[in-house]
Structures are given as C-alpha cells and as structure tokens.
Structure to design on (119 residues):
C-alpha cells in the first residue's frame, strides 16, 4: 500500500493536530460560538483557532454561520460529513478516559524525560 493510499494518513491530514480533534469534540455536542470555543480551548490563540476552524470549514467538516448583527455573531457546527466523525471522537474519548491515569500527566512526564535525556 502506498503511503498516500493509507486511510489513517488521509484521516489525520483532515482532523489531526493539536487543536482539531478538540474542536470537533466540543462541536459534536452542538453549535458553538467562537468565544465559547476559545474558552474551552484556553491554550490556543485567536489566530490558531481561526486557522484551524477555516481548515475544517474548507474540508467541509464544519459549517460557519455568520449573523449580520453588531457585534457580529459567528457560530460553528458539524456538517453531515463532520457528523460521520462522531464514532471516532467517541472512541478517542473512551480511550482517553480508560488511559488517563497512565497518560494524564503527560506534560510533566515529558519534561522529566527530557531533563533526564539531557543530563
């Protein structure tokens, strides 16, 4: 199988990365406004969140709806195509809950491992 034919590669090109799975996790439960997503993803910047939302919109995973009012209101939701990712998100959530104790402190363990490697 050629690398470009790998279905996992195709999937990760569309929904992979640090922020896209989290965006999709929060949108699977319904429509969210930009400000709500920013609060749910405190480690991201406005610029990065905007870029990831645009990429998901470009790939027809999410829908962006702009309401012509002041201040502007923008809402994001999963498209029908995006809804097809719900089983993947459910499996990822289940796996994360089951393995939280092993991987929950990942940032601390990675930092500790990096310090040990540099010594």
């Amino acid at each position: 199988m050629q690398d470009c034919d790998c279905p996992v590669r195709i999937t990760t090109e569309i929904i992979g990365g640090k922020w896209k799975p989290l965006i999709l996790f929060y949108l699977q439960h319904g429509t969210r406004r930009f400000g709500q997503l920013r609060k749910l993803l405190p480690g991201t910047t406005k610029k990065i969140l905007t870029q990831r939302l645009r990429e998901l919109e470009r790939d027809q995973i999410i829908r962006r709806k702009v309401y012509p009012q002041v201040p502007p209101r923008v809402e994001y939701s999963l498209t029908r195509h995006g809804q097809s990712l719900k089983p993947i998100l459910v499996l990822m959530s289940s796996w994360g809950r089951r393995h939280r104790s092993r991987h929950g402190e990942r940032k601390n363990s990675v930092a500790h491992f990096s310090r040990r490697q540099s010594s």
Summary: The chain has one domain: 3-118.
